[in-house]
Amino acid sequence: MLQWDKESVAGAGLVKIDLLGLGMLAALHDTCDLVARHHGRHYDLATVPDDDAGVYAMLRRADTVGVFQVESRAQMATLPRLKPDHFYDLVVEVALIRPGPIQGGSVHPYLRRRAGVEPADCPHPLMENALGKTLGVPLFQEQMMQLAIDCAGFTPAEADRLRQAMGAKRSHERVARLRQRLLDGMAARGIPQEVAEDVYLKIEAFSNYGFPESHAISFAYLVYASAWLKYHYPAAFTCALLAN
């Protein structure tokens, strides 16, 4: 056991993993125990049935009190507009309502593109690789790293320094030091200045907290599992929430 802060641990080259003590995990465990005791059916996180149309309909109605991550007012306002109908929509929902995408201006463009009101174009062809699967709108930290590699010629190591800068205390100052490197790299690849500045502003906004995609996927699975149990076993789910 080391009494070091996380920056010191990373600086020493040790692998740093954050283990989140989520109350929802205890609530899901208790719900499954209650379902087994009172209904004779045995579920855990690995065996909750997927792609349940009724669960997605409940989420689209924003009937999400008690559901992990999507019971805030901002999430409940977004769900009927996003209209989730498969798992990756929940990954997007979790990542979208975060300070980084909100301040980077990603939320409304994504929702308009999802609804087919606005074309899902990228400002430059070099951005397609990073942004294609999220309709041309950046939502995840990894996409910011890929943009820096594809559009500004960053090496993977430089892109990782950018990721560290985005996630660090005093991140604005650290990201700002990389600004000219980004702009010069994009100019060398023929990206217009106004597009390059917009890419930089989105990266800067992500220094106010954006999720890695892997984190959003993990959280989305807990969104789905808690929604499934709420939908099919509301009494057990409510008891477990109250107990936790």
Provide a short characterization of the protein structure:
With 244 residues, the protein is mainly α. The protein contains 15 helices and no strands.
Would you give an account of this structure?
With 244 residues, the protein is mainly α. The chain has 15 helices and no strands. The chain has helices at 6-11, 23-39, 53-60, 73-82, 87-96, 99-103, 107-114, 128-131, 141-152, 156-167, 171-177, 179-188, 193-206, 213-232, 234-243. The relative contact order is 0.17. The model has no long low-confidence stretch (mean pLDDT 91).
Keywords:
244 residues, 63% helix, 15 helices, mainly alpha
Helix content, binned percent: 55-70%
Please work out how many helical segments DSSP would assign. 15
User: Structural class, from secondary structure content?
Assistant: mainly alpha
What fraction of residues sit in β-strands?
Answer: under 5%
Which whole number gives the mean pLDDT?
91
The major beta sheet can be summarized as: none
- The 3D shape can be described as globular
Q: What is the N-to-C succession of helices and strands? A: HHHHHHHHHHHHHHH
Tell me the span between the first and last alpha carbons: 29 Å
The unreliable regions are none
Gyration radius, rounded: 20 Å
Counting DSSP E segments of at least 2 residues, the number of strands comes to: 0
Classify the oligomer.
Answer: single chain
